Amino acid sequence: MAMKRMTCGNLQFILGLALGITASFMLTSYRQMSQSSVMVHLDSREHIKSNQDLHDLDEHAFHEMMEKNQNIPSVGGGEAKAVKFEDEHAHHDDDTAARDLAKKVRVLVWVMTGPQNLDKKAVHVRNTWGKRVNKLLFMSSQWNSTFPTIGLNVSEGREHLTAKTMQAFRYVYEKHFDEADWFMKADDDTYLIAENLRYMLSSYDTNQPIYFGHIFHVKDMPNGYASGGGGYVLSKEALRRLATQGHNTSICRQDGGSEDKEVGRCMTRMGIKLLQSVDRLGRSRFHCFGPETHLQGGYPEWYLSRDANGAKKGLDNISDYPITFHYIHSAKMYALEYFVYHLRPFGILSKPQDLNLDLKH
Amino acid sequence: MKLKGKKQILLILLIGSAVVSLFYVIQVSVDASLARTLRHKSRVMCWIPSVEKWLKDRVKAVNRTWVPRCDGHVFFIKTNKTQHNDVISFDDVKDGREFLTQKSVAALIYLYRHELGKYDWFLKGDDDTYIVMENLRFLLAQYNSSQPVYLGHLFKKFVKQGYMSGGASYVLSRQALRKLNEEGFQKSKCKVNGSNEDLDIGSCLEAVGVPPHNSIDKYGRSAFHPEPAETHIAQDAVDPWLVAYNRFKGAGGRNCCSELTVSFHHVKPAEILVMDHLLYRTTVYGRVPDFSRLQGLFEPKTIPPPS
To answer: Sorted alphabetically, which keywords does the UniProt record give (chain B) (predicted)?
Structure first.
């Protein structure tokens, strides 16, 4: 008798559950079809004609090519003018959550630049995303009190980027260690969304020896290294080790080579771990190129062979909370600023998403 | 406890609806309810003239991004390469610059004959234009489609009241489309051949009494743009001929473009995808736009001809 009753009750429950699940699936697929914000799926087999020359260049030559062909819109053919991007009188976002996070997760960013790039590149960083980090420093080979920039004891040029990087981090450690919780290196053609960086870092403990960036793998560096172009960020402990042990030439190369690879080797020798920076859905957050390259592909060979996440492309492979884009020249930097922080499709509200990696497994 | 008949069904339904609400709550990461209420208010038909050679990249890009957000859409492309039912081919209209007006006239007659009753607004877009549909609807919500309304980026040359740039995209109300056809084309009042379709259609609209309406926001920033965003933002980058045509001076820099901008033109296919990602996917953690502050951003009014 008792068995029969239990079965009946269970049956009702199971029926109700089944009904509910069926109805939910039907409802959610209807919602997806009629929602005004459309999910777009890029066919990953699509082949947009990539510039074969660009494809075969090695990383350094590629970088030179990008510097030359920037397609900056201007009538005279020169650089884009600096643009003031204040909008407080017209623009009212509710950024309480972002500001709270900025107090808890303080980020210092030092930007790699040089005297010849202050008006061409660095100024646009200062006018756009530079305003949203806790502390912003420009590292150059010369002091400039008005801009301002810090003069490191280096010569300009790609062969000295390693020295510039080592000295920059040492400078930050000596002068600004207590002013931030995390320390990031960016280029003067990097675009950074600081709020999304803080969101990612909020999951981690800055007293751990860790760092983050876009991960590359090469044969002689099995632990990988963070791409310099995409920007990378060190914990307090990582910075402490780099600054105090980095003088030792058997641990860290002082100059020459590829800055990001040398920093990577240095980190490995000092026991600093490079952690994954993709989001919970496996989508990239630090980017070595601009959004159009990551959306449509056509990656150069050196990227295809190095990318630790399979050099994916397309709308579904970039996180909704991207952190950096690279090779962003002046006018594009303002355009990005406008699209990310100002232009809005009216009435579309993105709710906070839980996109950080689940660290508890 | 064993329940009988009706109570049993009730319990099943209750559990069912509890599960449904749970799914609903978990699924929603984008709240588009405000955008959706606007959508029901004005039905927009988007028409895009193009040519066969752009099918694979430009048409594909716009068709995957903003075009599906229109209530209806049609591509006017001379081709037999596609079976899609949203592509209309005019066999007697040739491709080429000299036939642009002819094509637009054919399109506007087609829309009058077949779609007039179904839509409130008719937007002409290009295959290299990016449209933010939600912002278009916001702008249109203040206007009455049974009035003759004409919106876009206003040029001052050649037509006394001005005409809207074709590339930046222009919008006609249902009444405007009706007047264009019944009082214009059907009475042979308008030029129906030429290469400057925007000028010729704009001239016709003046002849039948459809005035240009305002799309500049209260901060002096425009909503329709004949160039990409980075060109308008980078100061002094816009071609001087374009500047000379503009009815309103407009600013460069941050003040070029409204927060609720509707269009940008000369946008390459890769950039169309980028804009879609930046607007509908890329989010800034911890910042929530306050849309209530944007009410009254555009003042609905006609633009009188320059004195």
So the answer is: Glycosyltransferase, Membrane, Nucleotide-binding, Signal-anchor, Transferase, Transmembrane, Transmembrane helix
Distance (Å, whole) CA B67 – CA B61: 9
Cα–Cα distance for residue pair A35/A29, rounded to 1 Å: 10
Residue found by looking up tokens 């006017």 in the block: B76
Distance CA A211, CA A226 (A): 9
For residues A343 and A321, what is the distance between their CA atoms, to the nearest angstrom?
Answer: 17
Facing A20 at nearest CB: one of B19, B219, B276: B19
Residue B206 within any structural domain of the chain:
yes
- Strands B30-31 and A349-350 come out as antiparallel
* B142 and chain A in contact, CB less than 8 A: no
Whether residue B6 is contained in a domain is answered as no
Q: Find the domain containing B228 and state its range.
A: 33-282
**What count of CB pairs under 8 Å joins A to B?**
278
Cβ-based neighbours of B292, under 8 Å, separated by 6 or more: none
A11 touches chain B (CB under 8 A): no
Tell me whether residue B84 is in a domain. yes
Chain A residues with beta carbon closer than 8 angstroms to that of B54: none
CB pair distance less than 8 Å for B237 and A345: no
Q: Domain count for chain B, please give it.
A: 1
Best residue in B24, B137, B227, B281 for a mutation probing chain A (most A CBs within 10 Å) = B281
**Is B281 in Cβ contact with A331 (below 8 Å)?**
no
Question: Strand pairing of B72-77 and B44-50?
Answer: parallel
| Distance, CA of A277 to CA of B285 (rounded, Å) | 16
Which residue among B11, B135, B277 places its CB closest to the CB of A315? B277
DSSP, collapsed to helix, strand or coil, labels residue B150 as strand
Q: Which residues of A258-277 are buried (b: 16+ CB within 10 A; e: fewer)?
A: bbbbbbbbbbbebebebbeb
**Alpha-carbon distances, residue A10 vs A13, A14, A15, A20, B304 (angstroms):** 5, 6, 8, 15, 74
In percent, the amount of chain B with pLDDT more than 70 equals: 94
Distance (Å, whole) CA A348 – CA B93: 40
Is-above-0.80 flag for pTM?
yes
ipTM of model over 0.90: no
The conformation of residue A85, written as its DSSP 8-state character, comes to -
Cβ atoms B223, B143 nearer than 8 A: no
Residue owning tokens 């000028």: B199
Q: Report the distance separating Cα A310 and Cα A215, nearest Å.
A: 11
Here the CATH number for the domain that contains residue B119 is 3.90.550.50
Chain centroid to CA A164: 21
- Is the residue at B287 inside a domain? no
> Which residues, given as ranges, of chain A have pLDDT below 70?
1-9, 24-25, 27-56, 69-80, 88-91, 360-361
